[in-house]
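G., before I forget:
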Amino acid sequence: MPSVAKKLVIVQNNDAAAEPSAPVAARPEELRLLEALLFAAGQPLDEATLARRLPDGVNVKEALAALKAEYATRGVNLVKVGKKWMFRTADDLAWLLTKETVETRKLSRAAIETLAIIAYHQPVTRAEIEEIRGVVAAAGTLDVLLRTGWIRPRGRRKAPGRPITYGTTEEFLTHFGLEEVGDLPGLEELKGAGLLEGNLPAGFAVPVPSDDSALRDDEDPLDPGDLDLGLAPPPSRES
Amino acid sequence: MPSVAKKLVIVQNNDAAAEPSAPVAARPEELRLLEALLFAAGQPLDEATLARRLPDGVNVKEALAALKAEYATRGVNLVKVGKKWMFRTADDLAWLLTKETVETRKLSRAAIETLAIIAYHQPVTRAEIEEIRGVVAAAGTLDVLLRTGWIRPRGRRKAPGRPITYGTTEEFLTHFGLEEVGDLPGLEELKGAGLLEGNLPAGFAVPVPSDDSALRDDEDPLDPGDLDLGLAPPPSRES
Amino acid sequence: MTPEEFDTALETDRGTTEPAMIVDVEGFEGPLDLLLALARTQKVDLAKISILALADQYLNFIEAARQLRLELAADYLVMAAWLAYLKSRLLLPESAPGEGPSAEEMALALAHRLRRLEALREVATRLMDRPQLARDVFARGAPEPIAEIRQSEWTATLYDLLSAYATQRAKSALSRVRFKKRTVWSLAEARAALERLIGTSSDWSRIDAFLISFVVEPALAATVMASSFASALELVREGVAEIHQKESFAPIYMRKRVGMNASAATHDAQENG
């Protein structure tokens, strides 16, 4: 506990003086001038230019230092770049000056097909997707899908080449309003909805999908580097 | 001579607290953020825009008021123009900064008077402007004003010929540093002297200028083609 | 010539009945402006101005202009005609009341218009004297643009997904009816594996349990089983191994041949084969 001293103080309460509270040590006018000059300037200004604009006798260096100190903790700082001075948004507030715009884009037909195959047939490798689609996957398709956040690499197939297996994510369920991937319609439902028609060959089946994150017997965990290989890059920033 | 009262005051002198002089009540972070946003912006920003950029729960109105007070005595002031806020150099520092600018385009006397009539009498038709000035408007006058971006056609008077009515814009307020048209200099005197009435019979309500974009009872909206006729070119930027 | 210059020019001639010889309407913005300039020479508050005197001044001015054969805009002449009419009405006793506005009312209306124009000019000056942006006050000279981060949000509906799946599955199923290449486990592979099995233990081993470890893909189970069984029978025939099965579909056991039980095992095997 800090010691508490009691003191008796006689305060002379001068009413007249108290009324218009004396301004705290008046700010030098040159700081106002500098502030205005630097604010309005289209480019950084050097000390010589500032000195020329300010009244004679102003110590520009000192005034700049004082102004810099004043603004040091503010949202805008006075900074010296090269030999010139300028106001600039505080470094830590860069986030404030960015605007995130969302542009909606439609997935390509190939991407949607690939996504559907991953959803139904997961865990599935790239080769298997190509096998089912009967088309060699375009280079960017899986990339685009990984960027949507709807699919993820989940493991490696225990097979020659140890190909990566893909599955869907929770975001996939959220986006498509599914409670679980098992809710995806099966063969009969697809037929019922008129989505599957015609004479399908005997033995045509639609798997019952499962996105259980536990690895299957034929899956190995991903290798340590797999996720760093740009397989799941952060949402790309385009400028 | 002001009266001098003597008072006895017991001061509790807490040594521990007194030592490291407590920092002046830390400046709220939202002032930094606002400052950064408003400094960085090339345009005045409205409160809704600011609120959207600031963390939830910030009372934008209060923060703006606090920031305005902080900057009131500085070389750069926070001002409200129209419904928007912007930092501007202080009024009294024009002498310091005017060298910086290229001579701004000078308006003719006719254009200045026409602008004033539009500002003080809006919404107003071309015929009414001519009536007040007692002269047929030169062809280019309205054009010049439209090109400044300070006036705009706002509707059509419900009267024979359906003449276009003119009013001022937000840019007008920004340019002249007005919060609203109600702050036009001398407006009260004009109103008091009954000089805003036009030639209306006595006893008729005194009209007050309004740039409220809501149409008056005697205004119709502009016809679809009106704005394509070059009547309202995009606000021109002075370079 | 500016109105101010005109004022002074006119003022020097004040008191004489002759109108000023220096007449120039160039500097005026219409008849109302001229009237206002003339009114100012009366040096009284516009509210107390004598419209009659003003009308005289104006008419004199116009007359002087005409004598000098100056071309006057129609506006000025219309105003002159109106003022002449007003003057006559003001001088004559009011004859028929109720017929349009009285001469007094017309004079008041003119005075009102003059006051309004004058007041407007004054506020216009005050407006222009206000600190103007980019003239007296300045916005940030080097605004920092807001960086835009464009984030793509992908759209696809469940319908898109399902129809894409169904269509392409159906398409590939119909267009590519083909026989899947079968992966088979050769008899040689099976035999080698079984030899390894019985080599490690002289006790009964379950063939299927053993084989499972070779079966990576479920699809291979059948071929592994078939090849193994065939190889097992071969091994038994050669007298290298013996197999045993309790009943139909029961697990099949196998071990290295150790004399006596061979025939029984062979018998079982044959029965189940």
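Confidence is low (pLDDT under 50) at residues 1-22, 260-273 of chain C. Chain C has ten helices and four strands.

More on Monday.
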